[in-house]
Amino acid sequence: MPKAFPKEFREDVVRVFKESDSTIAQVAKDFGVSTSCLQRWLAQDEEASAIGSSGNGRPGGSPAESAELREARKRIRLLEQENEVLRKAAAYFAQANLPGK
């Protein structure tokens, strides 16, 4: 039976891997876990992140993270609108500067 690691330990190892430029093998070695174990933890973390960000009511983050996500989505919408205006303006001015008109 594999050795059970505390949830906090697993979360710390995954966080360290994501924040570093180290390989899976190096981080696994540093923390004394197998590479397959770390790969499984990373897959589980990705799955949990995907479920949490799907907006289907499943747990996935703190209220502060939810508020931050809402603000980020608002900002993205605003930037997309601004980008569309600039794209239309560029097309308009490009059309005005065509030779022969």
Sketch the topology as an H/E string, one letter per element: HHHH
pLDDT average, as an integer?
85
State which percent range the strand residues make up: under 5%
Task: Let me know the largest β-sheet.
Answer: none
**DSSP strand tally:** 0
Morphology? elongated
- Count of DSSP helices? 4
Helix/strand-derived class? mainly alpha
List the helices and strands and how they pair.
Blueprint: H1 7-19, H2 24-31, H3 35-52, H4 63-96
Helix pairs in contact: 1-3, 2-3
Brief account:
With 101 residues, the protein is an all-alpha fold. Helices cover 72% and strands 0% of the residues. The termini are far apart.
Key features?
101 residues; mainly alpha
Could you characterize the architecture of this molecule?
The protein has 101 residues and is mostly helical. The protein has one domain (7-96). 72% of the residues lie in helices and 0% in strands. It has helices spanning 7-19, 24-31, 35-52, 63-96. The mean pLDDT is 85.
